[in-house]
Amino acid sequence: xxxxxxxMGEALWDVLPEGKKIGGAPANFAYHVSQFGFDGxxxxxxxxxxxxxxxxxxxDKVNLRYSLSRVDYPTGTVQVTLDAQGVPCYDIKRxxxxxxIPFTDELKHLALRTRxxxxxSLAQRNAVSRATIARFVDTVPEAEGQxxxxxINLRQNFYxxxxxxxxxxxxxxxxxxxxxxxxxxxxxxxxxxDLQDKCWILLAKYNLKMLILTCGTNGSxxxxxxxxxxxxxxxxxxxxxxxxxxxxxxTFCASLxxxxxxxxxxKLAVEVSAFVCTQKGAMPQMPESLLKRLE
Length: 295
Known about the structure:
By secondary structure, this protein is of the alpha/beta class. The protein has a 9-stranded mixed beta sheet, sandwiched between helices. Strands 3-2-6-7 form a 4-stranded mixed beta sheet. The model has no long low-confidence stretch (mean pLDDT 92). Helix content is 37%, strand content 24%. The chain has helices spanning 25-35, 50-61, 105-112, 127-139, 161-170, 178-188, 195-205, 244-257, 262-277, 288-291, and strands at 4-8, 12-16, 19-23, 39-46, 65-70, 76-82, 88-92, 114-119, 147-151, 173-177, 210-214, 220-223, 228-231. The radius of gyration is 18 Å and the shape is globular. The chain is built from 10 helices and 13 strands. It has a single domain, classed as UDP-N-acetylmuramoyl-L-alanine:D-glutamate ligase.
């Protein structure tokens, strides 16, 4: 079976207090699945500018495969500030390259060979990328073990009920955090119900294989029709939390595709995410002790 796993959406520069680092949830996801031995591929768009060239150079250095269309919009940047706990706040620039990802023959052929794809809401804020993501996800073949992961990633005001609902109908796995679940509950009319019941409602309504709920320091859950898994959040010295959630999603996905049970996949995902929190930036090199867990 194919080992191609795609992260699709924004590829950009996180401009942090100490300088810029490569970022964007789909690229982070693709990078981490590639560390676990899969053919990770980042799909996005960049400009013909120096920042775009640097993204290509950075992906080449970490041996991350990519499909990056060159378009006539600036390469994306995000101004990131960190609070006292290392939690990021984002100022995401508009009208940039990743808002305008074209659907090409190359993407069609990639979709037909894709075993798992992860996409979010942010890259769907513009009609061009939104249509491309929809076509790509719809082109991925329906097969046993295929994963279509909607890592919702609500940012600023770059989302709508329509985009979220269409994405929920396309995915078979939803990843969401507790703050996002409150927002979704207001949008979809589930106020006054506890978090777990909201998860069960979404799981059933959209016929999902699983729903992953992360609650920061209060742990995380994986809901499936037959199993609920809970893991505490490890206490670690936090450098920053940029990309930690993407590493969780990537590890969970890779673990399932390697045949691990949901509790096993969940446990490793939590441990990898905790490690990423101890590092600066979203794409640290994973230690061998964690990588060997999936050999």
